[in-house]
Every structure is written in C-alpha cells, then in structure tokens.
Amino acid sequence: MNRIVALDVDGVLTDFDAHWRQCAERVLGRIVAQVHEDHQLRTRYGLNRQECDAVWRAYHDDEWSRLPLYVHAADLIYALEDLGCTIWAVTSIGVRHWESRARSLHGLIPAKRILCVGHAASASEKADVLHYLDAVAFLDDHPANASRAVSSVLLSVLLDRGYKGLEAPDHGVTVIDDPMDFPVLVEQLLRRTGRIASREGFAPGGLAACEGLASREGLAPLQGVAPLQGLAPCKGAA
C-alpha cells in the first residue's frame, strides 16, 4: 500500500533563512538586520541587488552542506516513519548541490530519496515530480508549490512561515503553522484511505517499487524536470 510522503527541505527541515542571513553578514562584513517580512530575501534584509548577488554567489559556492536542521526535523521524520511512510525530499536546488543537500540532512532521508528539481523549477515542475513519485502527501512552505501539488497528491499542506508578498494558497491546501501538525494530518489521511500501516512486522523504506527513480543516483536527469523521460509512476509503492 502506497505511503510515500514528500517534503520540501528549506524552511521545512532546514533553517535556510537564518543560515542565509549569517552568510550575508560574513560576505558583507556587517550586521544584516531584517527590515521586512517579505519572502524576497533582498527586500527582507534591505539589500541592494549587488549585495544580494554577492551573498548568493558565496552561498552556492560553499553553504548548502552547512544548513542547520530545525530542532523539529528528526521528530517530524520519525513520526512519519512510525506511520509506515517512505519519505522523499523534493527540493528546489540544483543537482550539483545534491551531495551537499544529503550532508545537510545528516541521514534523516537517504541520499537516493533526495530529488533536486533545480533553483528555477516552477511549481508545476515540482508537482510533476510528486506525480511520478505517486506521493500521497506533500509539505512545503511556499503557497505556489502547495497549491500546484493539489492535483498530484491526496494531501497538500502549506507550512505558513508568515512571509509577506506571497499569493494565498488555493482551495484544497491545508495550512498549518506547526510542522508537527503534519504527521497528524497524514495519519488521518492514511486511516481514511485504508493505508495505515500495521505496527507489527512493518519495515518502512520500500524503495524497490521505485527503482525507476532510485536507480538514478543524484537524479541528474531531473535537472530540467519537464521531460521526465523514462520515469513511470511508482504505482503500488510500499
């Protein structure tokens, strides 16, 4: 029975915002104060375009592997695994940062279950990946991604970080402000759809049914995502 759950990483499992700000202070050699609640980093921290570009260059060079996990990250993963879920990371960074992404997660999600869809990936492209995973639930902190995922998963959840300048989520998206509410919602979904795992003798993981995806280490073919050639839905994945 399919119990695949997909998670965004930055803003869900890793504290990207605080880490990016620390990088900005190191690159710019000054305190970088938050001046706005805007989602756009340049506006949030009152930077000009040249300053923001300099921070991003440094970040892409050396920082993705150093992202700190939120204190809830392990508890969130373990709670989902206790439900018998197989967890995949679907993250909007370039494939060249795949190994760094894996290091930043410290083994919480196996490297072969980390899909890097690219920095410029659209919400539709991310939703396509969810479809080909045959995921039943998805958690993201960006409304556009959660909204587009409604057509690909049974449960699309937005973790609301309170940022300004973002569109409202579409009807059908469940909004939470505590990430630990997500496993509760997933459990309700699994019970409602008859997917709840037997506690006795259950071994979560179940990559075999997704060999078409898992065999592509690093998933470099997903850089463009749109073609998704050769990827069949993982129907019946455990």
List the helices and strands and how they pair.
Blueprint: E1 4-7, H1 16-28, H2 41-44, H3 49-62, H4 73-82, E2 86-91, H5 98-104, E3 114-116, H6 123-133, E4 137-140, H7 143-149, E5 155-159, E6 173-176, H8 181-192, H9 211-214
CATH topology name of the largest domain, in short, is: Rossmann fold
**CATH-scheme architecture of the largest domain:** 3-Layer(aba) Sandwich
The biggest sheet, with number of strands, parallel, antiparallel or mixed sense and barrel status, is: 6 strands, parallel
- Which class of the largest domain in CATH terms? Alpha Beta
Q: How would you describe this structure in keywords?
A:
single chain, 238 residues, alpha/beta, Rossmann fold, 2 domains, 6-stranded parallel β-sheet, 6 strands, globular
Describe this structure in words.
- Helices cover 34% and strands 11% of the residues.
- By secondary structure, it is α/β, with parallel strands linked by helices.
- The chain is globular, with a radius of gyration of 18 Å.
- It folds into two domains: 165 residues, Rossmann fold (3-Layer(aba) Sandwich), CATH 3.40.50; 51 residues.
- The protein has a six-stranded parallel sheet, sandwiched between helices.
